[in-house]
Amino acid sequence: MALSATEQKTILKKQVQDWTTELKRVADLIAAAKGGNCALVMISSTDADHVDVAPELILEGAMRVNPLGWPQGFEVTLLNPTN
Fold first, then answer.
1. In the prediction, which pLDDT does 9 show?
2. What letter does residue 50 receive in the DSSP assignment?
3. Are 49 and 77 in contact (CB under 8 A)?
């Protein structure tokens, strides 16, 4: 028996919530290992123009990175770079 679109959406929403909870746990482990807090962020595009945009460009756009690069004093690590 196939799932309805609503059922599929509900299952996917729950899965994303579970994965997000796990990422929060991993962020705490990373912060503890580094000896200080860090911000682990998930940035998702909300408009159709960015559906096929590389993760690096989504991150740079969302953080409004200037042409000179990242601000000094921060280490930025993208966890899912384009292959």
1. 95
2. G
3. no
CA distance 36 to 34: 6
Q: What is the DSSP letter of 71?
A: P
State the Cα–Cα distance between residues 25 and 29, nearest whole angstrom.
7
Q: What is the pLDDT of residue 51?
A: 80
Residue ranges, the chain, pLDDT below 70: 67, 70
Residues 51, 40: contact at Cβ < 8 Å? no
- For residue 44, the model assigns a pLDDT of 80
Q: Is 28 left (phi over 0), alpha (psi -120 to 50) or beta?
A: alpha
The residues with which 66 forms a beta bridge, in sequence order, are: 69
Helix (H/G/I), strand (E/B), else coil: 22: helix
pTM, full prediction: 0.65
Cα distances (Å, whole numbers) of residue 73 to 33, 41, 69, 70, 76: 19, 18, 12, 9, 10
